[in-house]
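Reminder: ligand-aware prediction takes two inputs, not one.
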Amino acid sequence: MSVVHETLERRIVFGAGAIGEMPAELARLGLRRPLVIAGRSQAPYAERLLAEVGAGDSVIGVRVHVPADHAEAARTRASELGADCLVAIGGGSAVGLAKAVALTGSLPIAAVPTTYAGSELTTVWGITDAGRKMTGKEPGIAPRLVVYDPELTYDLPAAVTAASGMNAVAHCVEALWAAGATPLTDIAAREGLRLLADGVRGSLRDPRDPDARATALTGAWLAGEAFAAGGALHHKLCHVLGGMFDLPHAELHAALLPYTAAFLLPAAPQAGRRIAAALGADDPAAGIVALARDVGTPRSLAALGLTEDDAVRAAAVAAPDVPDIPLRPTPAELEDLLRRAVRGAPV
Ligand code: NAD
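Here is what comes back for the chain with nicotinamide-adenine-dinucleotide:
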């Protein structure tokens, strides 16, 4: 079968202080009246941007998993304002809210990511209504402009730095065996992994180290590019578990990745060699485990509140629909994988 690599139209600006270029970048795209969507800790950046642009308004405060009523309120605000674009400043939750607004209003999005989640580079949206998370892909909602400014990550708490970093690591790892992998996503995944391992460890040692933060954010950028390959078993299980039990997104990725990777790696030897090389480890699964241990993310699903009974239920929900690349687990294998992840069993 042919390899297909599709490139979305977007402009990426990366640099310390780059958020200061946002007004000129918006003007370059002919955009003059933004609705700025920002997490609470990013409110000062939103205010400064609005003052510099001289028009627009803001929605401050975002919620994880984009509740439908929150999306509806932001849509109303955008249409009352006559906004011509959305500017998301924050983590995956801020970008997610902007995407939910763009989904129905087709406003272009400019994103300033302040975590390593990678949503700014994907076409994936998610909205939660009455306890059910709906997701989909829509090319039109992928941010047209992404401004990466490492300075905005200096105050990212250690726990978010670590978990969000492991979320990006998961994008890189799965991109190496996902159905949509291409030579370009492979390169992005390998280099992204190397930079994330280095940058996240360094950022935890010194959160305000400019080099470490820039390295981690560059790794997250590459992880987002790599994720154009799509996900496989790991992302499928995170989606099912996150939806069923309302688990914290990044921590879930961090806790589960060692188990999904260890299960799939025997069927993906080339990916294994690449992961080991990127992590400077003899063995790829051991390299992932060592990174998770170093950054201090939760080591079991039990630490997120899950029981083995929950694992059995989730395995039953996921089993009919698990990807077969590079390997499809049997229902019994799936249940065993999740039970072990709940217990935090040795990988
Ligand atoms: P988040 O956006 O919820 O942020 C986590 C916490 O960190 C929040 O309390 C936030 O206020 C805080 N924070 C963020 N940036 C900060 C900063 N620079 N300084 C201080 N505090 C800061 O978490 P996340 O992991 O970035 O995103 C998770 C959400 O994104 C989930 O809903 C997930 O489904 C979604 N997501 C979507 C995609 C996609 O492709 N659509 C990809 C990854 C994640």
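The CA atoms of residues 4 and 12 lie 22 Å apart. Strands lie at 11-14, 34-38, 57-60, 85-90, 109-113, 124-129, 132-137, 145-148. We will return to this case in the review session.
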